[in-house]
Amino acid sequence: MSTSPFAVPVRIYWEDTDAGGIVYYANYFKFMERARTEWLRALGVEQEQLRVEHGRLFVVVDAEAHFRRPARYGELLHVTCEIAETGRASLTFKQEIFRQGVGGELLLDGRVRVACLDAQNFRPRPLPDRLLEEKGEWRTI
Q: Which of 110, 99, 111, 45 is nearest to 75 (CA)?
């Protein structure tokens, strides 16, 4: 049984575009970050709460993106987020950006690995036990 990935809409503004009128490549990483943050929020996890109450941070340690088609001012994109791999202290996300809704025209596909670090000394820390059930399914803190 396949489930749909988590997705958030992102509207393209002038500030997102370059002199050629297309989305500046680095902004796609911002859109991907928003999707991961909203995914956590949808699970009831606020990153500030994770830092303050649990002493942990998620930081990007590896990112790759394959740019397929450009996006332009005014377009509404949909950015997906789903877990591809889990480690003791890391998560790897598969992310895609579509025009015309999820499953529409693929503009970008990529992977982002985040590490779970101690908020004080920035050393790797295991993912909080309360985040993962035994089956590896996400739930709220």
A: 99
Q: pLDDT, tens digit, for every residue of 112-138? A: 999 999 999 999 999 876 566 533 455
Largest interatomic CA distance in the chain: 49
Tell the residue number behind the tokens 């982002």, with chain if given: 112
Find the length of the chain.
141
Active-site position among 16, 18, 62, 109: 18
In the chain, beta strands by DSSP E: 6-11, 56-67, 76-86, 90-99, 105-118
Closest CA to 12 of 62, 67, 72: 72
**Which structural domains are found in the chain, ordered by start?**
6-118 (3.10.129.10)
- Is 129 tagged catalytic? no
